[in-house]
Design brief:
The structure holds two protein chains of two kinds.
Chain A (H helix, E strand, L loop, with lengths): L1 H15 L2 H29 L3 E7 L14 E5 L5 H6 L8 E5 L3 H4 L3 E4 L5 H27 L4 H7 L8 E4 L5 E4 L1 H36 L1 H5 L5 H40 L2 H14 L1 H8 L6 H14 L2 H29 L3 H27 L4 H6 L6 H8 L6 H29 L9 H8 L4
Helix pairs in contact in A: 1-9, 7-9, 7-11, 7-13, 7-14, 7-16, 9-10, 9-12, 9-13, 10-11, 13-14, 13-16, 13-17, 14-16, 17-18
Chain B lengths: L1 E12 L2 E12 L3 E5 L6 H8 L7 E6 L2 E2 L8 E4 L11 H11 L4 H14 L15 H13 L5 E5 L7 H16 L3 E5 L3 H7 L2 E6 L2 E7 H7 L4 E7 L2 H7 L4 E8 L4 E7 L5 H9 L3 E7 L4 H12 L1
Parallel strand pairs in B: 3-8, 3-9, 6-7, 7-8
Antiparallel strand pairs in B: 1-2, 1-4, 4-5, 9-10, 11-13, 11-14, 12-13
Helix pairs in contact in B: 2-3, 2-4
Chain lengths: ~450, ~300
């Protein structure tokens, strides 16, 4: 036990003391925020680029009626210029040529010519404009034909916009204001974080084992400690590094949320805005809320957002996050350590790593499906199968999962993890001293039964 | 009383027989040479002594008692393929390895200070290992091997990678350790260093021990009764005088002296040969050819193959 502690200390301290650890810990959330916001920012900029669309209106319904958008401008052209423009789309100023046939009211069909495939913005804008005008025109005709007074106004009045407010009923019968979007955001963030942690720290274990094997230091160490002690010391040490990083993030985000709360009470809207943007960098949930937000009442929304955040049981989420992270990480990293111990070269490593990483990546792929339907059978099974459960169960938990399901899922995962560590230890102690030849899966199986 | 015994040890890896019924006895204070061609099973034997792996059958005794887990604190091992953490600082690294060998941090620091001063490498403490040359890294590793003052030391090719000056320094250190009571197992292919520092050798070939004994006895056993004689006088006369029992292997005449290499067949006594020569020529020098360990090694292994 003492040996594991000494090895643990080395693995932990050499990594945490590095400057790059602190820098990466702080930069990673910023980087993620960047990944989320830069495409959006670029998208708003791009849409301001103007696309000129020439319109040849043979039906004579639309002249002057088509409205320009930020990205699309309509220019009506005489019919006799049609062929000229159509043939020279590559060189002339027009991005596209819209051909509206004479019988558009019946055929409901227009044609767009362009040199490059027209982008979605322009296509959608043309679609909406023409639909709107045709609908208006037909409705106006209908209103006139049936002759009911105020029909137009009455039709307008039937338009309805409903707001669905959700409350989650606790076991104590008290309802808490909930939000599907927020639950999705939290679930997604938690699932993705687990995926990321398992992947990053699992790979670190793998690289550590490879380093020791290639350096040949392993022979020195295992003449002082048992191979299984070296493996466990390394795995646990790196788990502690991961938890340290997680803790730093919790403190950062917690600090920012607290800051946001105090800002709301000072009612300084400019500061709130600033705060909001800081918060978004650290909290993907905030990003979701941002999307639905009207810039005018940010402050009001922020208050609402904080209220909803209070409705989420963060203690529960953090506790389960830690359990699933630790178990999932132990499961995967022990397998990765076993593989890394068995092979010498990078190429062989990739071949053996593939079957281990497939379920992990698979979990991320089905995550999108699970988040839409957290009660479905895919969600149920994926949150019980040990290779996907750390990620998928974390996605489900913010929506509320019966405690016995969580218990079963954790038990299965814990048992599998225990088995994986046992297997890994057996493979590791043989593999770590084998050099020169690439083992087959069959041989790895044989190592399991070696006595020593 | 033997300090370390290996009794009838066998070990096989998936179909490959690494050791077959090997027995070795090592006395306290000995420098024991463990010899053998590549792949003979030496590393497996060393790993069994280090408890890195366990024998399939047979037993190992340390100081008269069966080898137990705690004995690793009494053993120091310098493997042939050696390495340390490249990016870790020399001092931290040495402390880490010392603590794994059961030293407290304070003891480790004190002893490291002694050795670093002795090798005059105090300045390396805060350097990363990869900043040092290969020879320097070996020195650090040597210190890590002996730091916990083990009673049994195992050196596998300790001189590889050292320049002659440092190799000599290391040899002195190894002999010092023996003076201070350590028992040493020394595995190498460098036979001249075996002759310099070993008291006793065992030779393993194809998983079996084929030779074992005091280094002088071994050489004695493999000598061929061949003598180099330098004399003054007529070769023809000498040649006629030596009987059929003495075979002339080589003859060389110079202006002043003649040289002769002869083999005494059928194991007659030295004096018979010497007198036969002395009666016919003036003997200037007379030396028996003692085989070098190198010759013994080659001969024994070839005969065994």
């Amino acid at each position: 036990m003492n040996k594991i502690w000494i090895i643990f200390k080395r693995e932990y301290l050499t990594r945490v003391k590095k400057k790059s650890f602190l820098i990466l810990t702080i930069l990673t959330p910023l980087l993620f925020a960047g990944i989320m916001f830069v495409p959006g920012y670029l998208a708003t900029r791009e849409s301001q680029e103007e696309h000129k669309v020439a319109v040849c209106d043979r039906s004579a319904i639309f002249l002057g009626e088509l409205k320009d958008s930020k990205s699309t401008c309509f220019y009506f052209i005489p019919e006799d210029e049609f062929n000229n423009i159509k043939e020279n789309l590559k060189t002339n100023e027009y991005y596209a040529l819209l051909d509206i046939p004479q019988n558009v009211l019946n055929s409901k069909r227009v044609i767009v010519y362009s040199h490059k495939q027209v982008n979605l913005d322009v296509k959608n804008h043309i679609d909406r404009q023409i639909e709107r005008l045709l609908e208006d025109k037909q409705r106006a005709e209908l209103v006139e034909r049936v002759g009911i007074p105020d029909l137009e106004e009455q039709l307008q009045a039937t338009k309805t916009n409903i707001s669905v407010e959700t409350f989650k009923m606790g076991d104590d019968g008290v309802g808490k204001k909930g939000s599907t979007e927020i639950a999705m955001g939290v679930g997604y963030a938690a699932g993705f974080l687990i995926y990321m942690f398992v992947f990053i720290y699992g790979s670190m274990v793998m690289r550590g084992v490879t380093e020791e094997k290639q350096n040949r230091i392993v022979e020195v160490i295992i003449s002082s400690a048992k191979p299984v002690q070296l493996m466990m010391g390394k795995i646990i040490g790196l788990a502690a590094v991961g938890l340290t990083q997680f803790l730093i993030w919790i403190i950062l985000v917690g600090g920012i949320i607290l800051g946001a709360q105090s800002m709301v009470s000072t009612e300084d809207s400019s500061q709130t805005l600033e705060n909001q943007s800081v918060m978004m960098t650290d909290n993907p949930v905030a990003a979701q809320v941002m999307d639905n937000m009207d810039a005018d009442n940010i402050e009001q929304l922020l208050e609402k957002f904080l209220e909803i955040l209070e409705g989420i049981d963060f203690t529960q989420i953090i506790v389960f996050f830690l359990i699933y992270f630790l178990l999932g990480y132990l499961l995967y990293s022990s397998l990765m350590a076993a593989v890394a111990s068995a092979v010498d070269s990078e190429e062989d490593m990739n071949q053996f790593m593939l079957p281990i990483t497939v379920p992990l990546i698979g979990a991320i792929i089905i995550l999108a499906n699970v988040i839409k339907n957290p009660e479905g059978s895919l969600a149920f099974w994926a949150s019980h199968i040990p290779f996907t459960s750390p990620i998928i169960m974390m996605v489900r938990i913010p929506f509320g999962v019966p405690w016995y399901e969580i218990l079963i899922s954790i038990s299965i995962l814990a048992a599998s993890t225990f088995g994986a560590i046992w297997m890994a230890a057996k493979i590791y102690r043989t593999g770590i001293l084998m050099y020169g030849k690439k083992p087959s899966w069959k041989e790895l199986g044989k190592w399991l039964s070696y006595r020593n | 009383m033997d300090f370390f015994n290996i009794k009838n040890v066998s070990k096989s890896y998936s179909g490959h027989q690494a050791l077959t019924d090997v027995s070795i006895d090592i006395k306290k204070g000995q420098v024991f040479g463990l010899l053998g061609p590549n792949g003979a099973g030496k590393t497996t034997l060393i790993r069994i002594i280090n408890q890195i792996t366990a024998p399939d059958s047979g037993s190992v005794f340390f100081d008269g008692k069966p080898l137990k887990a705690d004995d690793i604190y009494r053993i120091g091992y310098l493997p042939e393929e050696r390495g340390l953490y490249k990016k870790m600082k020399v001092g931290e690294q040495s402390l880490y390895l010392a603590q794994l060998k059961g030293l407290s941090r304070r003891d480790a620091l004190r002893k490291l200070k002694y050795w670093f001063e002795k090798f005059e490498i105090q300045g390396w403490w805060d350097k990363k290992l990869m900043e040092l040359s290969k020879g320097m890294q070996q020195k650090v590793q040597f210190i890590c091997t002996v730091l916990h003052e083990p009673q049994l030391l195992i050196f596998d090719e300790p001189f590889s990678g050292f320049d002659p000056i440092n190799a000599n320094l290391l040899k002195q250190e190894i002999l010092n350790l023996r003076e201070n009571g350590a028992t040493i197992i020394f595995s190498t292919h460098n036979m001249s260093s075996v002759e310099e520092i070993c008291d006793h050798v065992a030779l393993i070939n194809k998983s079996r021990k084929i030779l074992d004994g005091n280094i002088f006895d071994v050489k004695e056993k493999y000598k061929t009764n061949t003598f180099d004689v330098v004399y003054k006088g007529s070769f023809v006369k000498l040649e006629n005088a030596l009987g059929a029992n003495i075979q002339i292997l080589q003859h060389n005449e110079t202006d002043r002296v003649n040289e002769l290499t002869v083999r005494h067949l059928n194991g007659g006594s030295h004096n018979d040969l010497l007198m036969a020569i002395a009666a016919n020529a003036e003997v200037l020098s007379y030396t028996e050819q003692i085989p070098s360990m190198n010759e013994v090694f080659i001969r024994v292994v070839n005969e065994n193959n």
